[in-house]
Amino acid sequence: MKGLSRISVFGLALLVSTLAVAENIEPSAKAADEGSRGFFSRLFGSDDGDKPAERASTSRLAPVESKAPAASQATSQPPAASAPVRTEPEAKAVPQVAKASVPTLIASSGEDPYQILKRADESRGNLQGIAWNVAIESNEKGRTDSMLYDIKARGFNISGLNIAPPKSKGQKLLMLDNNMWFHKPGLSKPIPISLRQKLMGQASYGDVASTNYAEDYEATRLPDETVNGADCYVFDLKARNSRTTYDRIIYWVDKNRLVGVKADYYTLSGKRFKSANMEYGSTVMIDGKERPFISEIAIYEELMSGDVTTLSMTKPKLAPLPDFIFNINLFMQ
Q1: DSSP 169
Q2: Whole-model pTM?
Q3: pLDDT at 263
Q4: What pLDDT digit, counting tens, does each position of 160-211 carry?
Q5: Which of 163, 243, 287, 291 could form a disulfide with 178 if both were Cys (CB 3.0 to 4.6 A apart)?
């Protein structure tokens, strides 16, 4: 009996244990079953009442939402393949850069306006000591007048002595740093005059002097042109101060010889009032080389009425000039 009791107790304990295990397993299996049914229900819509159209819409939107971050990342960090798109604006901007660099190319190729004008000035008297004769002839309204000056120049300073006609003989001109004085026998002191003051016909006092266009004028390069078969630089010259002979000049410089061959003269208001043609039939030796020197300037008034004033430069001679020639205190002697 005692052994039977032990077996009964053991069997009872085993039964209780088995029931407990079964109780624990049942919820897990049930949950798994429900989870499995829930997954398939969501997938096929059998339990939650989803409509086929809604499921199709959801399945199409999902890929778009999943690619959105990748698109954003591609925008912030563009791959190498997008480089042609980025460089396209730069390719369009290349012509503008090329146009802006034209002045630099001119300067680098030796076509600096200042240097061109300086060289042209040297053929108009800008030398360290030169003397020549200037014969002025004016033809206006059928009347002809003439005058002859002996000119001495050093740099941009000039000393002029009138030697004809007899009524003007002995009259003097002196220009120092764009300031000019006139003197004639009988005056107690020289009279300041303007370079723009008329000397004879269309010629001003400044026309018989050396030119200093490189320093006296602000130069703007214009498109090149051809004058009498010669390729020319063209410059728009605007006076830096009021002491110049002209306010504004359009100036043509022969590219081959580097001499001024044509000029149009304008007032401050922009009105052209006369023009000039230049010739270089003389030569002088500079640094062992022959250089052309001005031989004639023909000045025409704007209306082209046939009136013309001609300045003929002859007998140019290079020679050192003493200081007293350009001394205003000795000017009257």
Answers
A1: T
A2: 0.66
A3: 98
A4: 999 999 999 999 999 998 899 999 999 989 999 999 999 999 999 999 988 9
A5: 243
Q: Give the residue among 292, 190, 204 at the shortest CA–CA distance from 249.
A: 204
Residue 319 sits at φ, ψ, to 5 deg, of -165, 145
Structure-token pair, residue 209: 């002097």
Q: Each residue of 284-328: pLDDT tens digit?
A: 888 888 999 999 999 998 866 778 999 999 999 998 999 999 999
Using CA atoms, how far residue 258 sits from 25, 91, 319, in Å, is 112, 39, 23
Output DSSP code: residue 184.
-
Instruction: Return the number of other C-beta atoms located less than 10 Å from residue 245's C-beta.
Output: 20
The dihedral sign for the CA sequence 99, 102, 105, 109: positive
Q: Which residue is associated with the tokens 């009257």?
A: 332
Mean pLDDT (the chain, rounded): 76
Domain chopping of the chain, boundaries: 2-76, 116-330
Instruction: Check residue 101 and give its pLDDT.
Output: 29
Structure tokens at 250: 């359009």
Per-residue buried b or exposed e for 53-63, using 16+ beta carbons within 10 Å of the residue's own CB: eeeeeeeeeee
Strand-pairing partners, residue 40, are: none
Judge contact between 278 and 262, C-beta under 8 A: yes
Residue 157: beta bridge partners? Answer: 154
SS3 assignment, position 271: coil
C-alpha span between 16 and 149 (Å, rounded) = 147
| Phi, psi (rounded to 5 degrees) for 144 | -115, 130
SS (H, E, C) 196-248: CCEEECCEEHHHHCCCCHHHHEEEEEEEEEEECCEEEEEEEEEECCCCCCCCE
Q: Is the pLDDT of residue 331 over 90?
A: no
The CATH superfamily of 116-330 is Lipoprotein localisation LolA/LolB/LppX (2.50.20.10)
Contact by Cβ (8 Å): 236, 220: yes
Q: At CA 50, angle to CA 46 and CA 53, rounded to 5?
A: 120
